[in-house]
Amino acid sequence: MAERHESSDALPTAKLHPRKGEQEEGGDGDEDDDEERKQRLGEFQPGELKSSVSELRQTQLETLTAPSTQEFSENDQFAGLQLESVSQSIDGAELQEQLGLSHQEILASVTNQDILIQKQSQSQLTVCPTPFSELSPTSVTQSISSAPSPILIEQRVPHGKTSASDGYNWRKYGQKQVKSPQGSRSYYRCTYSECYAKKIECCDHSGHVTDIVYKSQHTHDPPRKSICIKENKLALSAECVRYSVVPAEHSCRTVNDSEVSTSSKEPIQETPSVPERKRQSTSDSDDNGDVKIKEENGDGDEPEPKRRMKKSKSEYSASLSKPGKKPKFVVHAAGDVGISATIVHNHDVKMTTHGLSV
DNA sequence: TAGATTTGACCCTGC
DNA sequence: CGCAGGGTCAAATCT
Ligand SMILES: [Zn+2]
């Protein structure tokens, strides 16, 4: 059963059964290996998630302005990026109009390469269009009235390009060669044991970083200067937010993704309902020589339950995978091209907006 | 020696 | 069912 390895003879035998434990789902009690599983499961952190979520609701986070991003600018360009999530237990979808305001602010705040993204989770999102300039009046201000806890995430990318380090320590745990956008993909994970933040760097064939995707938030402060962010607790929200920074043509995308796949049977209306990965590729191909920065936060559920789902499925399916309970936000903000926002709540497509053609 | 990186294999999901 | 793409693991290697 646990032998599915086709290992080449050149292997030092030790490799013969690498992750036996993982695959063993036959039904053994395997308690010893449980630890490993735990770690893997840890990615989802069912328990913690709940806790944090609760806290989130109870705790109101206020958006604070960037203190001194200059410090980070030196080496950590990306450190400047600020992410703030404000979750309010107040169930009021009253911020809707606020969005409009945000839009302007964003435009104002966003200069050249600075992008400010404000997103109100679950029900409202604000996407800042292209800072670069004239971006059509396409301000995606979608607000779905049904989300009790609006989360405000503010992210700022001082230097859109290349973010060698955002102030955290990353450990590379994998690399993949991709064909679509010819290049490679590097997978990084925060070195903090308690932190499940991940980062994916997409490089083109020449080695240029074309895309950076952040997953989850750090559950700790940066090793160095204190960014003075209280992401500590919010970190766990499992929403997926993607930011794409492209000087020439900015495309901001916010994806609150959890696992709508179950009900995602229904294709998104206006948007070219493309699978997650497809989406990425699609957008990636857009830019040449530019770095896109995206951030993904899981929201209570798993963003992309790819690996180790077996275990979790069997044990946590009840609590984790809630079919039909996954709010999904897909916001595409392409400067000139237009903005397309797709919000999927449960299995209902809330809205899709194309900046130029709605 | 420890920690990080490299790299091949493996698993999962979607088509 | 099989394939392709994507993501992760872990042994080997490097620093
Ligand atoms: Zn971290």
Question: How would you sum up this structure, described in words?
Answer:
- This protein has a domain at 155-215: Single Sheet (N-terminal domain of TfIIb), CATH 2.20.25.
- Helix content is 20%, strand content 25%.
- It has helices at 20-23, 34-42, 46-58, 69-75, 96-109, 231-234, 276-286, 309-316, and strands spanning 84-87, 115-120, 124-127, 140-143, 151-157, 170-178, 183-190, 198-204, 209-215, 251-256, 292-296, 328-334, 338-345, 348-354.
- It has a five-stranded antiparallel beta sheet. A five-stranded mixed beta sheet has the order 6-7-8-9-11, with no helix packed on it.
- It is globular, with a radius of gyration of 20 Å.
- The protein starts with 19 loop residues before the first helix and ends with a strand.
- Residues 1-164, 225-289 and 298-358 have low confidence and may be disordered.
- Zinc ion binds at residues 168, 190, 192, 195, 197, 218, 220.
- The chain binds a DNA duplex (15 and 15 nucleotides) through residues 4-8, 11-12, 14-15, 18-19, 22-23, 36, 40, 171-176, 178-180, 185, 187, 189, 191, 200, 261, 275-278, 280-281, 304-310.
- Residues 1-75, 252-327 are annotated as: Disordered.
- Rounded to an integer in angstroms, the radius of gyration calculated over CA atoms is 20 Å
Write out the CATH superfamily name of the domain at 155-215: WRKY domain
Q: What is the number of helices?
A: 8
CATH classification class of the domain at 155-215: Mainly Beta
CATH architecture annotation name of the domain at 155-215: Single Sheet
- What gross morphology would you assign? globular
Which structural class is indicated by helix and strand composition? Answer: alpha+beta
Hetero compounds: zinc ion
